[in-house]
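Troubleshooting: if your tokenizer reports a length mismatch, compare your output against this known-good record of 277 residues.
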Amino acid sequence: MQGLRDLGYIEGQNLIVERRFAAGDLQRLDEFAAELVRLRVDLIIAAPTQVTQAAQRATKTIPIVMPVSGDAVGFGLVASLARPGGNVTGLSVLGPELSNKQVELVKELVPGLIRVGLLWDATSSVGELHLARMKNTAQRLGLQLHSLEIRSVADFERAFAAAAQGRLGAVLVGDNALVFNNRARLVEVAAATRIPAIFLWREYPEAGGLVSYGPNLRDLNRRAATYVDKILKGAKPGDLPIEQPTTFDLVINVKTAQALGVTIPQSILLRATEVIQ
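Known-good structure output:
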């Protein structure tokens, strides 16, 4: 919304916004998408990936802008990054390169690491793709990747208990609406087991998580406003190339590191974009 205001769009004056928020209940996504189509909105902003998929199921004609999504090509949302070709465009972040970087980071963070877990939502196709990519990268780096499946918030404790029982040296947290919307609880569970956890968004260490590495979510949302502006001025979404992040945040919560007894290597501290004391 700030990005739109910067471009001259003022809600209530030259912009009307219909908001729908599923609060983590993925069963409502198709219902909400259908509502927006019936309202004949000019454009739909939808994120994250599961929401974009629901919007695309509901309409092949109304333009859809995704401020943040997983692998847009891998999930069939667009034909290619250069020429999306349909009614979806925007920003895509969870490509193979990011998965590789996260696994490389956890190996650097925990000396002698052999076994690492991936916490992922088994109800999401996004999680399945993330797991497959992480396995390939982990194998290349000589790590054993263990699957920690979750389906609800109630599974957080069970997953980390399994990680502790399996003597996993660290846990990578796959991103989706379930974990992001309940990040405070997830961080609390991770701290209780004293297992280092690596996250995607900076919002996790801001909530007390140990380390995050990934794009700046707020910046991605602001950049999505430029797509909205171009489409409302006549551009076709299928002709607007998908953008990918050019800068990444490495955020470290030093207080959490101390509580976990984790010594952050100097090589990581020097690369950090923010250190939370």
